[in-house]
Write a structure and sequence with these properties.
The protein is mainly α. The chain is built from three helices and no strands. It has a domain of 37 residues. The two termini are 25 Å apart.
Length: 89
């Protein structure tokens, strides 16, 4: 059985090219969704509270945080990109 050596023409397999497990990918997408929705809810509450004192600032915050819920859903449902297999040099 031949061992791989530094002078061999065949490179060793790289484990860093492996895709993350399905559980790790789901955990990452849930975390992204939770963080963005948290920012959205806090911004919406702050914007609503500011609307009664400084209506222009509250309106700006509500307008900025409004689309975050759709962005969170799109990012949470996005499938990971498929990588092309690396070709040895």
């Amino acid at each position: 059985m031949a061992r791989w050596t530094r002078w061999s023409s065949r490179p060793p397999p790289s484990i860093t090219d492996a895709r993350p497990s399905a559980d790790a990918e789901l955990r990452r997408r849930r975390r992204i969704y939770s963080v963005i929705m948290g920012i959205h809810l806090v911004g919406f509450a702050v914007g609503g509270a500011l609307y009664y004192t400084a209506w222009w600032a509250g309106l700006i915050i509500i307008i900025v945080t409004g689309p975050l819920q759709w962005i969170a859903v799109i990012l949470a449902n996005a499938a990971p990109r498929r990588r092309r297999p690396r070709t040895p040099p």
